[in-house]
Design goal:
This protein is mostly helical and 155 residues long. It is built from five helices and no strands. It has one domain (33-142). α4 (90-107) packs antiparallel against α5 (121-142). InterPro entries: DUF6113. Residues 1-11 have a biased composition (Basic and acidic residues). The chain crosses the membrane at residues 36-56, 62-79, 86-109, 115-137. This is DUF6113 family protein.
Length: 155
């Protein structure tokens, strides 16, 4: 037996030959349950963003300085909690986007003349303050590496 025949037999036996992949069946992609759960979490966070926006719109005008601070604190808690629950920036962006769309929809006047926000300083502070809180919470969640978890720092 020559040197080439022995190398040819070894390559066929190890499965690296040309016909090695023909006998295998193609693998089907596995559906990750984590992807479905994460999408459900984002939808839940968006619904909570709508609810926090409606509640904040009603409370910020009722008790002006305290209600405004309470409404912004509720928005900050939702955005930060969403980022921590989803362990991603999207966890803060989903409720923030739903919050912003809801607040803008509530601030437009209708043909009947009804609207939720008055033309005062509190409404503008709620809108601009909520946007600032959303940006701060989203930016703060970007700096936290998710793969490290709780890492002890050097002594």
């Amino acid at each position: 037996m020559s040197g080439n025949e022995g190398a040819d037999r070894r390559s066929r036996a190890s499965g690296s030959g040309a016909g090695a992949g023909a006998a295998e069946t193609p693998r089907q992609p596995e559906t990750a349950p984590g992807g479905v759960l994460k999408a459900g979490l984002y939808v839940l966070l968006a619904v909570l963003g709508v609810l926090v926006a409606v509640a904040g719109a009603l409370i910020q005008g009722a008790w002006f300085p305290g209600g405004l601070l309470l409404a912004l604190a509720g928005a900050a808690a939702l955005f930060t909690g969403g980022a921590r629950a989803a362990v991603s920036v999207v966890g803060a962006l989903a409720p923030a986007a739903a919050w912003l769309v809801t607040v803008i929809a509530l601030s437009t006047t209708r043909a009947e003349g009804d609207f939720v926000f008055g033309a005062g300083l509190g409404a503008y502070a709620f809108l601009l303050g909520g946007i600032a809180v959303a940006v701060i919470c989203t930016t703060a969640s970007m700096g936290r590496p998710s793969h490290l978890g709780a890492v002890r720092r050097g002594m």
